[in-house]
Write a structure and sequence with these properties.
Blueprint lengths: L8 E5 L4 H12 L3 E6 L15 H11 L2 E6 L5 H15 L4 E4 L19 H26 L6 E5 L4 H6 L5 H21 L5 E6 L6 H7 L22 H13 L10 E3 H8 L11 H9 L12
Parallel strand pairs: 1-2, 1-4, 2-3, 4-5, 5-6, 6-7
Helix pairs in contact: 1-2, 1-8, 3-4, 4-6, 8-9
Length: 304
């Protein structure tokens, strides 16, 4: 039986900030119960040393109309992930949506550094954070998800399969991390189809995450001030945009038609008709190919 959106139980692994937070809030806006995990709480921060917390995200879920439940979890620790899934089963009896958004690798990126000069420890740590966390979480969560047909797994990445196949992502480790997650969604799709469940890979466009806004020295209210330094930032989108993409996928009784596919927030906006918070529909990956990578002047006409 297909559940109504407000009946769904979701786990957003890596929901402290950025896309994970936007997804958790939009699932909450659809009325879902959302377990939000991460390593930064009001009592303890991760190595990111940033102010956003899982409790704050859970409160935003509540405010949006859902039920947010914050649980501190290191998704590299199998015992912690196992305990998390047992808690969800005990408290809810089901899991309908798994969003694998754990990342944590920004501070490990060395752009335009060849592999033989790159910090090996840093690069391998990035792969563990980007890949092992997703595998560990799926390993423990999918037995609960497949107990009911219609379950959805969303593997969050950066770039579509088409874009990443043609473009070097400016670091061997980053390139491998993001391409691997896309393949992971494809493989899980093969394993889930017999259970009536779906797995997809999903990418936002140029995300106005808290860290990205800080990097430009702006906030969400004045983000356009960053265009003087980077005109192509005009195609950027809020985390709520990709959140709405996930909420629409979760509510779609025919979501299985996307099984195994690589999707984007901009592509799904055209499919479902939703918009970003400002009413626009930025299509970042088409823009990157046709405008930014093509060396054309920044102009989002026809792209948002």
């Amino acid at each position: 039986m297909t559940l109504r959106p407000e009946d769904k139980v979701a786990l957003v692994a890596g929901g402290t900030r950025g896309a994970g937070r936007g997804i958790a809030v939009e699932l909450g806006a659809a009325g879902a119960t959302v377990y939000v995990t991460g390593r930064t709480t009001r009592e303890r921060r991760s190595e990111y040393d940033r102010p956003e917390t899982i409790e704050e995200t859970a409160e935003l879920v509540d405010r949006a109309g859902g039920r947010g439940i914050a649980v501190r979890v290191d998704h590299l620790a199998s015992d912690q992930v196992r305990a998390l899934v047992r808690r969800i089963e005990d408290e809810q009896g089901r899991l309908d949506v798994l969003v694998n958004d754990v990342w944590g690798g920004e501070r490990l990126i060395e752009w335009n550094v060849p592999v033989w000069e790159y910090s090996l420890d840093g690069g391998l740590r990035m792969l563990r954070l980007a890949i092992d966390t997703h595998i560990i979480t799926s390993h423990f969560a999918l037995p609960l998800l497949i107990q009911n047909e219609g379950g959805l797994v969303v593997e969050m990445t950066d770039g579509t399969a088409e874009y990443n196949a043609e473009n070097y992502r400016v670091s061997l480790f980053y390139d491998l991390a993001k391409a691997s997650v896309i393949r992971m969604a494809w493989a899980q799709a093969k394993e889930l189809v017999a259970h009536g469940c779906t797995a997809v890979a999903l990418t936002p466009g140029w995300l106005r995450s808290e860290m990205m806004l800080d990097a430009f020295g702006v906030g969400e209210s004045n983000w356009r001030d960053a265009l003087a330094a980077q005109p192509h930032f005009a195609i950027s989108e809020t985390p709520r945009y990709v959140g709405r993409a996930v909420a629409h996928l979760a509510a779609d009784p025919e979501v299985g038609r996307f099984n195994g596919r690589s999707l984007s927030s901009g592509g799904l906006a055209k499919e479902y008709g939703f918009t970003d918070l400002d009413g626009s529909q930025p299509d970042a990956w088409r823009y990157l190919v046709e405008v930014q990578d093509a060396g054309r002047p920044a102009d989002t006409t026809g792209y948002r």
